[in-house]
Amino acid sequence: MPDNNKTYDPFETLHKFSLLWEKQINDFIYLWTNNNEFVKAANLGTELHSRYLESMKKNQEALASVLNLPTKSDVTNVANLTIQAEEKIEALEEQLWDLQDSVKVQAKEIEGVVEVSKDIIKLTKQLKTELVKTKKELTDTKNLHEELQEMKFEIMKLAGFKEELEALRSLMEKDPAHELTGAGTSK
């Protein structure tokens, strides 16, 4: 009694047929490749085919050079040169970036030096002003010293004059009758 629940699947039949067909083709290829004469003939055919391809390649290159068309090797060489040029450009870009970075660092260093220079100039101006003041004060001090020396000399003269007056006073006190003779008179 046939089973009615089972449905017909055409792909399963096709799959079984393809497996059978594959096995037969594999057996056929095995028989061919296991044959020495077939291997020799295939080897000769491969050799003739490679000679034909080499000849065709030479003819294409000759025709391309006559017609001034690029060959596959020319395109390969151009591609290699392009890759090398791109690598060199990338290396140059990296060097440029490094240079930009170093220029930025140097610019910051220069800004620092400029700031320090401004501070030094400011300090120099202040020192110059202080030097001028100090020179003026030194001159004033010298003048005061000279005036003090003159005053000291005058005081010494006054002290000498005072001593003479004291001596005269003591003489006058000892001898009140004694008058100063000849003082202020001319004979």
Short overview:
This protein is 85% helix and 0% strand. By secondary structure, the chain is an all-alpha fold. It starts with 9 loop residues before the first helix and ends in a 13-residue tail after the last helix.
Cα end-to-end separation: 196 Å
If you compute it from the alpha carbons, what radius of gyration comes out, rounded to the nearest whole angstrom? 64 Å
Which regions have little confidence, pLDDT < 50, spanning 5+ residues?
Answer: none
Question: What is the residue-mean pLDDT, rounded to a whole number?
Answer: 87
Number of helices: 3
Series of H and E elements: HHH
The chain-level structural class is mainly alpha
Percent range for helical residues? over 70%
Q: Give the overall form.
A: rod-shaped
State the total count of DSSP E strands: 0
Strand content: under 5%
Largest sheet, described in full?
Answer: none
Protein model, in words:
It is a single chain. With 187 residues, this protein is mainly α. Helices cover 85% and strands 0% of the residues. The protein is built from three helices and no strands. The chain has helices at 10-33, 36-67, 72-174. The longest helix is centred in the middle third of the chain and has 103 residues, at 72-174. The radius of gyration is 64 Å and the shape is rod-shaped. The termini are far apart. The model has no long low-confidence stretch (mean pLDDT 87).
